[in-house]
Amino acid sequence: MAEMTEWEKMLKGLPQNDRAPELEARRRVAKRLFRAYNKTTEEDIEVREEIKAQLFRKVGKNVFIEPDFICEMGNNISIGNDVFFNFGCIIFDMGEVTIGNNVMFGPRVGIYTTNHAFDPDERIRNVVVSKPVKIGDRVWIAADVKILQGVTIGKDSIIGAGSVVTHDIPEGVIAAGSPCRVIRKITPEDKWL
Predict the structure, then answer these.
(1) CATH code, 6-190
(2) What pTM was computed for the model?
(3) Which of 116, 125, 167, 185 is catalytic?
């Protein structure tokens, strides 16, 4: 049986070498693409669509990304329809990132799917483990939120500004804090119109 590549280990959530040449090569491709995207303007619609199609595993319709967007691999990110990323969002996608439809990201949101080894000997040998992040439909992630590896955020929820999301958040709630915790359910009384 052939030995697994570092990419295959990464996708299975197994310890892998963060600095393996095959992963570094994928990072270079992603950097070239997101840097090209960040140099475009709103008038460069076709160019932006071409770059997004190359950068992401899957990208839906009406996905708008403000500069300066940064990602690590790109091709581990799947994005639904009608998604908005505000300025300065970062996705470290060594683990899979799945974003539903009608999701809004405030400025400077960070999604981090990888954690470095706790053991110092493993850490200096670049050992990391990646776990997926899933964000349901119609979620609003407010400004400066940090979402850590292995987290699922349920549909229709809101994550308050400045939160650090370390564990799953159920659907239909307002959650905030560091660490992020559920404050309350969203109710019909929350409608403004």
Answers:
(1) 2.160.10.10
(2) 0.95
(3) 116
